[in-house]
Amino acid sequence: MPAERSLGELATLVGGQVRGDPGFRVEGVAPLEEAGPRHLSFFSNRRYKRQLEASQAGAVIVAPDDVSLLGAVRPALLVSNPYVAFARISAAFHPVRKHAPGVDARASVHAEARVDAAATVMALAYVGQGATVGAGTVLYPGVIVMEEARIGRDRVLYPNAVVREQCVLGDRVILQPGAMIGGDGFGFAFDPETLSHLKIPQAGTVKVEDDVEIGACSCVDRATFGETRVGAGTKIDNLVQVAHNVEIGPLSLLCGQAGVSGSAKLGAGVVLGGQVGIAGHVTIGDQAKFAAQSGVHTDVPANVTYGGSPFLRLADLVTEVRHLRQRVAELESGRAGPGGDGKGPSRS
Amino acid sequence: MPAERSLGELATLVGGQVRGDPGFRVEGVAPLEEAGPRHLSFFSNRRYKRQLEASQAGAVIVAPDDVSLLGAVRPALLVSNPYVAFARISAAFHPVRKHAPGVDARASVHAEARVDAAATVMALAYVGQGATVGAGTVLYPGVIVMEEARIGRDRVLYPNAVVREQCVLGDRVILQPGAMIGGDGFGFAFDPETLSHLKIPQAGTVKVEDDVEIGACSCVDRATFGETRVGAGTKIDNLVQVAHNVEIGPLSLLCGQAGVSGSAKLGAGVVLGGQVGIAGHVTIGDQAKFAAQSGVHTDVPANVTYGGSPFLRLADLVTEVRHLRQRVAELESGRAGPGGDGKGPSRS
Amino acid sequence: MPAERSLGELATLVGGQVRGDPGFRVEGVAPLEEAGPRHLSFFSNRRYKRQLEASQAGAVIVAPDDVSLLGAVRPALLVSNPYVAFARISAAFHPVRKHAPGVDARASVHAEARVDAAATVMALAYVGQGATVGAGTVLYPGVIVMEEARIGRDRVLYPNAVVREQCVLGDRVILQPGAMIGGDGFGFAFDPETLSHLKIPQAGTVKVEDDVEIGACSCVDRATFGETRVGAGTKIDNLVQVAHNVEIGPLSLLCGQAGVSGSAKLGAGVVLGGQVGIAGHVTIGDQAKFAAQSGVHTDVPANVTYGGSPFLRLADLVTEVRHLRQRVAELESGRAGPGGDGKGPSRS
Question: What is the pTM of this model?
């Protein structure tokens, strides 16, 4: 249970100003709908004005321009970016669970693995020969780190995550349960003589840079040669496929069930909505954004906001075709004409 | 190998009537195409009349209205809902495998976990501090139950399924292999000052109600606050994504690779076809049904059957446009006219 | 580190001819862009002529017809199929990691399992009662093989892969990390009396034939009756769903996040692009190929190349509709006419 903090302390934490009583005791944070009189909430989007008015929140994080919406009574914490301040304050109330360092007797750590004395290896986790695990890192039960993999500092690998041989993960990386790093890329050459798909050895690795998070059951394949790379600060949701030799720039966001095919290059700050598919070998510019279910088969320049679902486009097209159909019917019946006045052309 | 049963016994089990010999010995159940002379099969859809006629099945479960299709010779079990009766009888022939209760010596159970004496914890399974496991529940090898998770009675967690901290699962729940319950939701606030995506703590949990089944490698994320909820009796197929703060009503069906984005609310009896995507924050009414690959970006009322694949819609649209093209060509060539008689308008 | 080999040796290995010095020492293989002066690369597609010219590769595998593109200086290895030869030579340089045979003391192998003396069972792997594991097979940590499963020879099961009860895998099969074989198929009968989805027992198994590879977190469900079958030599990428009673012919390729619904039958050499969805009960002919994100709801004959993404089709359709709109507008304004000359019909 996190301790109480005063609004003044929290303002100091995020560099904000208090309006009202800085001694107001905050017991926790919550969204507007769920906050009670001892909770601090946040308001960052005027679409939620009604929720603000109805909220029981004892205090609210708000931008200076919006403070008037708050009424005179409630204490407020004024910051330029309420959502960012909320993230920082919520993190203060919900610190990452600490685990005692050390290797559990029921873990399996190879004699030639190097596990930092300040790392935690829980029961039923495995660290292979030549692998390294940095200080502050926690391997939950069922985590498998294979030979010569290198795991940085202050990482959390949740249960049953796997890091295969030689893959490298930076500092402060989080793997959600069942994330699979370093599976073989999908590469085969069809041999007409033996009538078989010959496996192309996947001799490369995966490099996951600092501050990356990878979701449950997401898969990042090792490269054929060289490395598959996930750039610093990028966040990947659940069930996402990142194929061999993909390069993802820093600070990108890949939503659930998105897939990036082999050798595609994504720039910095790219956003893939849910179930987006990126074809192999394409290049996506910085800050390009793709709505859910988009399919991308060609290079895309920087800063483009792309497509959206086939459904949205289809809806537009259906409307257009329906309209055309009517105009054609009018033409056929002789009722349409110049100016579209519905009277039809003069014909004799 | 399940024991033989008489047709009369099976009729009693499902509340049906026997036509023919109630002493007919049934060795097992099978679909029409695969059934032999000692098998009981079922017929529930007149589309499969030909399969019925060709079937070697010794006896058939059939609705009273359809019994005439069966011919005079074969014994029959008459019930109003043959498929439901078949499910019950098949369950009698294929009882769930029993495991001796107890904790295997190679499992890892925290001293402060509470595992019911009638539960089974197999080798290499893990139960964390403060977690509870109810009577009759089976944890297969590789199952990881983290701190303070609560697992009900008569549950089956297949190999390598994970239940993270504080998540709650009701009675008679089944997790298929590699199902991941309680990973962190995908929530970040971009901080322009530090140029980083700040992690929003995912301080909530997951509540999986009674009689839910969750497929292999499906992921249900924990809530930011409060709980992500999967309603009683809902069934989720493989590789399905259920994001943080989603609420799914009872008795819904989510087919393979469907995805539900954050804070979406699904009613009771909702059906999502394979690879369907539901956008965040939308509300889907009871009994709404979505064909495979549908993308849903807005609220949907109850009882709607939605969309279908972009492909089906595209096919219709392609036909429509082709037709329009021809009509326009005819207009242009002066051959079309009122009534669409193909003779063209009188023009002078 | 693989040893050096002479170009002459490698030519013998793949049945090719050397142009230039057969004693040229090759240290390894690499793609054109990354190869250095001691690397052997390959050239198989004239689209990459520029990469060939710019490459630092010391020697190149090339088809006889293309050898002129290579310039006179570099040694070459002439073969009819350079990519296949590259696959074989790369495999020679990157042999599959050997593991000492034997069962690790921290593995969990049932007394009644039969593990060949020449198999490797690593720490934290599990083999259940009555299961068999063939010679040369390697079970990585976290692999779970349940009761009576049968695992052939020379298989590799990467960490946390699962094979459930009674499933059968042939020889030389590879399961990538977290692949899930034999989860229950998704089959329920809605019972209006108890208002519940009754589980249909999934009493069948999975048969994975020889030389199959299955990707990370891919799921192949067990059959309701009989078996779900993956044909010899078929390769399945990551996060692919194969539902109960599916039959996949030999030598097919299923790319990432593709899904095949229940009882669908795929022929030999079928190719599914990424995120393709195949509906239940359809039949797909041999060699049929489906572009990424295709949705397939009907039977498809052999040798068809299907569809492509909704997006590609939409793009064509948008162009077509835009064109029609203009023609209709011209008709309405009286400017179009026979012959489409833009002058409009004579009207009086």
Answer: 0.90
Looking at chain C, which subunits does it touch, using at least 3 CB pairs closer than 8 Å as the criterion? A, B
The pairing of strands A265-266 and B168-169 is unpaired
Residue among C188, C249, C276, C182 nearest C220 (CA): C182
d(CA B174, CA A56): 39
The conformation of residue C201, written as its DSSP 8-state character, comes to P
Chain B hits for C183, CB-CB cut-off 8 Å, are: 158, 176-177, 215-216, 238
φ and ψ of A19, to 5 deg: -110, 125
Pick from A83, A177, A238: CB nearest B162: A177
- Residue of chain C whose Cα is closest to the Cα of A329: C328
C116: which 2 tokens?
A: 């060949």
Q: Which residue has the tokens 């298989």?
A: C155
pLDDT at position A165: 97
- Given a contact cutoff of 8 angstroms between Cβ atoms, the answer to whether A166 and A147 are in contact is yes
- Out of A284-288, B28-32, B114-118, C311-315, least confident range: C311-315
**Taking CB atoms and an 8 Å cutoff, what residues of chain C touch A186?**
215, 235, 237-238, 255-256
DSSP letter for each residue of A186-237: --EEEETTTTEEEEPP---EEEE-TT-EE-TT-EEEPPSSSEEEE-TT-EE-
Residues of B with CB below 8 A from A347's CB? 345-348
Six token digits for residue B310: 């972009």
The token duo for A160 is 């049953």
For B124, C20, C116, C162, the CA distances from C101, given in Å and listed in that order, are 21, 43, 9, 20
Q: Is C188 helix (H, G, I), strand (E, B) or coil?
A: strand
Contact status, residue B76 vs residue B64, Cβ threshold 8 Å: no
Nearest by Cα to C42 from C93, C3, C96: C93
Q: What pLDDT does residue C232 have?
A: 98
Kindly give, in sequence order, each residue whose CB lies less than 8 Å from that of residue B53, ignoring residues fewer than 6 positions away.
none
Q: Distance between the two ends of chain C, CA-based, in angstroms? A: 89
Chains touching chain B through at least 3 C-beta pairs below 8 angstroms are A, C
Q: Taking a contact as any Cβ pair under 8 Å apart, which residues of chain C between 198 and 237 contact chain A?
A: 211, 213, 215-217, 233, 235, 237
Q: DSSP string spanning B271-339?
A: EE-TT-EE-TT-EE-TT-EE-TT-EE-S-B-TT-EE---HHHHHHHHHHHHHHHHHHHHHHHTT---GG
DSSP string covering B146-182: -TT-EE-SS-EE-TT-EE-TT-EE-TT-EE-TT-EEE
pLDDT-derived band at A331, boundaries 50, 70, 90:
confident
Which of these, C205, C139, C204, lies nearest to C173 by C-alpha position? C139
More confident residue, B325 or A299: A299
pLDDT of amino acid B316 = 67
Angle, CA A67 vertex, CA A65 and CA A72 arms, to 5°: 150
Instruction: Provide the edge-to-edge strand list for the sheet that holds C28-29.
Output: C17-19, C76-78, C59-62, C39-43, C28-29
Tens digits of residue pLDDT in C281-302: 999 999 999 999 988 988 999 9
**Distance from chain centroid for Cα C215:** 8
Q: Which residue has the tokens 């107001």?
A: A24
Sort out which chain A residues have CB atoms less than 8 A from C332's CB and list them: 327, 331, 336-338, 340
Q: Residue type at C90?
A: S
Q: Determine contact: A103 vs chain C, CB below 8 A.
A: no
Determine the residue type at A24: F
User: Chain B residue closest to A93 (CA)?
Assistant: B201
Q: Give residues 21 to 40 of C whose Cβ lies within 8 Å of A.
A: 30-31, 34
Whether C281 sits among the annotated catalytic residues: the reply is no
Complex ipTM > 0.90: no
Inter-chain contact C307–B310, Cβ cutoff 8 Å? no
Is A159 touching B (CB cutoff 8 A)? yes
Residue type, B130: G
